[in-house]
Amino acid sequence: MRMNLPVSEHERTFPREQRLISTTDLNSRITYCNDAFVAISGFTYEELIDQTHNLVRHPDMPPAVFGHMWETIKQGKPWMGVVKNRAKNGDFYWVSAYVTAIYENGRISGYESVRSVPSREQNRRASALYARLRQGRAA
Ligand SMILES: Cc1cc2nc3c(=O)[nH]c(=O)nc-3n(C[C@H](O)[C@H](O)[C@H](O)COP(=O)(O)O)c2cc1C
After folding, report:
1. Which atom of ligand 1 lies closest to the CA of 2?
2. Given pLDDT bands bounded at 50, 70 and 90, which one contains residue 95?
3. pTM confidence score
4. C-alpha 16 to ligand 1 mean position (Å)
5. pLDDT score, position 33
6. 105 Cα to the center of ligand 1, angstroms
7. SS (HEC) of the chain
8. Which of 3, 78, 88, 93 is most exposed, with the fewest beta carbons within 10 Å of its own?
9. Looking at ligand 1, which atom is closest to the CA of residue 61?
């Protein structure tokens, strides 16, 4: 589990109509990301591309969430979840992510995440759940 530090208490937000999109290869290396994702991440496109996606991992995210995500998408099933990401300077931003497999010739060749702004209620519930998971308690 990659631990990206430092973190700040400053939240970044993005417009409701925007979608933050990235694609990866099978090993989570970023193969594409759109301008909106680049902008909020604080990294440049060049800093993001070819890096593993845990570059934007926030330390508040419980490992089990990503474990469940990978288990699901490797089976070709879509996964939805609320994720807290870390910007390059340590700020955070919440996303509602929809992650799906990309197929080529009938085989999974990579993955795509399309992220939108989560509701306040989604954020509140995810924050509380992830705090419990970090303390080692059951969901
Ligand atoms: C298409 C795709 C998008 C992803 N987007 C994110 C993301 O926005 N934030 C994040 O922390 N992890 C994301 N991940 C998961 C990371 O690859 C990684 O599993 C996670 O950050 C946990 O890091 P760790 O492997 O160091 O524990 C994504 C994975 C895929 C396949």
Report:
1. 26
2. very high
3. 0.96
4. 22
5. 98
6. 25
7. CCCCCCCCCCECCCCCCCCEEEEECCCCEEEEECHHHHHHHCCCHHHHCCCEHHHHECCCCCHHHHHHHHHHHHCCCCEEEEEEEECCCCCEEEEEEEEEEEEECCEEEEEEEEEECCCHHHHHHHHHHHHHHHCCCCC
8. 3
9. 11
